[in-house]
Amino acid sequence: MESKLWFYAYVTLGGAVLFAGGYYLGLSGKTDTSIEAQKIVSDQKKKESKKDLQQAGLKAESNEVSSDMVANSSEKQNESYYLMEERRRSGIREILDQFVNETNPVYKYATLAEAMKQLNSDNLDATLEVFESIPFGFENMQEYRMLLYAWSQFDPYGAIDYCKSRASGMGAGFAVSGVLEGWASRNPREALAWVEKPENQVMAKLYNFGLIKGWASKDLDGASEYVMNMEGGDEVEKLAGTLAEFYNKRGFGEASSWAEKIENPKLKEAAFTKLSRSLARDKPEQMASWLEQHSDKKYATKAFENLGLRWSETDPESAIDYFSGLAEGKNQELGVKNIIGNWAKKDPLAAGTWLNEQPAGPRLDSALASYASTVSRDDAGSAMEWAVSISEEKLQQKTIRSVGQEWYRQDKNAVEAWLPESGLSEDLQKSIRNPPKKNWWQSLRDL
Q1: Who wins on pLDDT, 65 or 250?
Q2: What gap in Å lies between CA 90 and CA 366, rounded to an integer?
Q3: Domain residues of the chain, as ranges?
Q4: d(CA 276, CA 94)
Q5: What is the predicted pLDDT for the residue at 35?
Q6: 366 near 336, Cβ under 8 Å?
């Protein structure tokens, strides 16, 4: 009985010991696992923290660069602003001194423009002191035009008096015209009233060029109405040409419609001529399409002449095809003449072939004269055959003389052999044997 009790006690004690040991081991293992897990978490956090710090550093660096760029840009803007302000504070005189000393024409006139924007009654005297050193003539016309235009915005009467104090006659008249351009751009009726004063009538025709140019920039229709009711000669026709330029800025459709409505034949011709000069080179097809409706009109003659001249500079074949299809007359004749002249410079064989294929007759005389004169610069002997074929006597004699003189410069012996058998008059032969010396411009034209 006692031995059983000791057995049970031993077993119970051993179980307790085993339980305690197992609990301790389990607790110890759990603690090790937890520490390992904590270590992994800690390392991960360190990595993330390091990554965050790196990203934060890059972001900070980027923000710093951006801030520097903004700061630099802002600094440059401020620097530019302060420079401009400093120049303004320094006065118009310093700007004009820079203008006088500048040799680059782009910067020179940009500087003058900046000064003229600031011109007023307070700094006018300082400005005129600078201009006293600039000759008052055509060689400095652009400088004085800017001065007078700016001056006219606040004191046109003073500007006019200044012009008359610096020049007289036509010189003063042209200068005053510049004042009127600026004056009329601001108040055309007031400028017109000044021009119409009896004491200004002597120069009124000249003044009108500035008046209409300034007026048209502010009120084109009003300026047009005034010009259409003017009486005069060539100067009024030139004013119509000025109006055509302004209408063309609105678009060719409006400009051509305006020109067609002009009733005065001379003014109508001036408008057509001006529009053809503006568009015949760059938009010949458009000009040709419009002029075709006026192919038999006298007021369109110069316009057709311009079209033939300009179109043939870039595409003589298309130009000659167009003019060949027009009705016979002066407009066709002058157009073909100018085309042949330019075509012969580029391709004399093609131009000569075209002429040979045409029916002989007076309508080709102008073209033959143009071809002979052009070809003679390189081969006057061959050109003489074309000159002789002209049917109209006066034009024939004139062309033979100019071609013969060119031939004499090139091959005197050949001309001397040809003249006795030519049948030309003694006076014409004498003229051919004494060709005038070419001036610089004529020599340059022959290149």
Answers
A1: 250
A2: 65
A3: 219-279, 296-358, 368-447
A4: 46
A5: 40
A6: yes
